[in-house]
Structures are given as structure tokens and as C-alpha cells.
User: Which sequence fits this backbone?
């Protein structure tokens, strides 16, 4: 049901439901679908691979006291 004007299709396999019973089941299923679609969101937290995680744990390389030694 991508648009509001879509007509849902219901195939009755057994029994003889009334129009009111069919309308009730369509309303219940449509509402359940709408609630599920509204709560289905993509997780926006960034995912880090193992290399990125290990880089964050280590200090960056620094020249230290011997950085300007010319030998």
C-alpha cells in the first residue's frame, strides 16, 4: 500500500464473511501496517570497522625530544 488510493485485495479461502467483517479485518491490518511502517527506522549510528576502533585507542605518533636531531 504505497498510496492512499490503493485498494487492498482480500482473498477469502473459507467461510462467507459479511462486508462488515471484511471491512473490520482490512481496517485492523491497515492500522497494524501503518504502525509498523512508522516505527521501522534505520539506525543512524555510524558503524566503525576494527581498524578504525584500534586507531582510536592508540596515541598518534609524535616526534618527541629527538624530532629535530640532524645527526
Assistant:
Amino acid at each position: 500500500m504505497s498510496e492512499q488510493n490503493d485498494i487492498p485485495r482480500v482473498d477469502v479461502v473459507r467461510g462467507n464473511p459479511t462486508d462488515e467483517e471484511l471491512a473490520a479485518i482490512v481496517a485492523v491490518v491497515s492500522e497494524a501496517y501503518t504502525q509498523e511502517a512508522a516505527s521501522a527506522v534505520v539506525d543512524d549510528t555510524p558503524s566503525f570497522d576494527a581498524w578504525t576502533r584500534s586507531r582510536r585507542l592508540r596515541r598518534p605518533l609524535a616526534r618527541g625530544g629527538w624530532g629535530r636531531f640532524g645527526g
Q: What stands out?
A: The chain has a mean pLDDT of 79.
